Amino acid sequence: MKKILIIILCLGCFGCNSKNIVNEEKVVNESQVTLDLLGEEEIALNYNEEYVEPGFKALNKNNEDVNDLVKVTGQVLNRPGEYTLSYELNVDDEIITKERKVVVKALEVEENASFVPVLMYHYFYDDEAGEKGSDTNYLAKSLFEEQLKYLKDNNYYFPTMKELKDYIDGNLKLPSKSIILTMDDGAESNYRIAYPLAVQYQIPIVWFVVTSWTDPNLPYQQEIINSGYVSMESHTHDMHRAGCSGMMHGGLFQCISKEEGLKDLTTSKEMLKTAISLAYPFGDYNDNTKEMLKEAGYDLAFTTEWGVVKPGMDKYALPRIRISDGNSLQTFIDSIS
Description:
Blueprint: E1 2-9, E2 21-28, E3 34-37, E4 42-45, E5 56-59, E6 70-73, E7 81-91, E8 94-104, E9 118-121, E10 123-125, E11 138-140, H1 141-153, H2 161-168, E12 180-185, H3 188-201, E13 205-209, H4 219-226, E14 230-234, H5 258-272, E15 277-279, H6 287-296, E16 300-306, E17 318-322, H7 329-335
Parallel strand pairs: 4-8, 9-12, 9-17, 10-11, 12-13, 13-14, 15-16, 16-17
Antiparallel strand pairs: 1-2, 3-5, 6-7, 7-8
């Protein structure tokens, strides 16, 4: 606390003389650490409008600028949704946090897309570093980057799973060039190769993960999710196994008891927190699996059957387009057209 000594000379007053001095101490509070957000704390943007950070003003106790000590987390994508940006200032043993909400309005589309391709990837290898894929489920990094660049350069729109559900139900129109990229299993190459390219080209991707194989709540997993370019959906908790003899690929999900199935699906959903969709292990499904998914609170389920998603389809038997290694860019373009 700063102290200011104020000296008052009492001259010619009653009962005192020029030699009398009265000392009075007045306490003045120090300046406080402050963090103020510039602009509005809630900002509305139109679809595809770029977010521009209004900024902030941070001062320490000496009224000195400490903006460089402010840590900002969160990201705003130019797609419909609500985004939260967090600001934290840690200085002089004080921590101040503030939040800003950014709402990107739903897109306005006059003509609805006649179909939406949902692409199915599995694994990747870095051909530029001399790696090779074990089979056609492994896609070369150079080919994947070529595909992403094409989608970015041609202004494709990437719906969320919620938007796809609303589109199927007839409650939302999507642009004619809409597409979703999904990746099954959540393999290591997704993190090492696919994720950095998705961020580079600003293209959201969906990972269908087996939650008994990977914990989505680990710090590095959360960092990937918080990037805004990866959403994790379910590939079951522990049903990516065979066990049903004579039933398609023998996926266990087809013949497991309802009690066991619901327990698995619920566990996966709780670990993923925001998942509303599932990819069937091996692509195997039947009427029982669809009923279990509905009861467990899933809105969509994807097979490995070839095709594009259209309004009015069975939301628990949705087709996808498998992307295989070795195909040219033109083959890719033809497959999504």
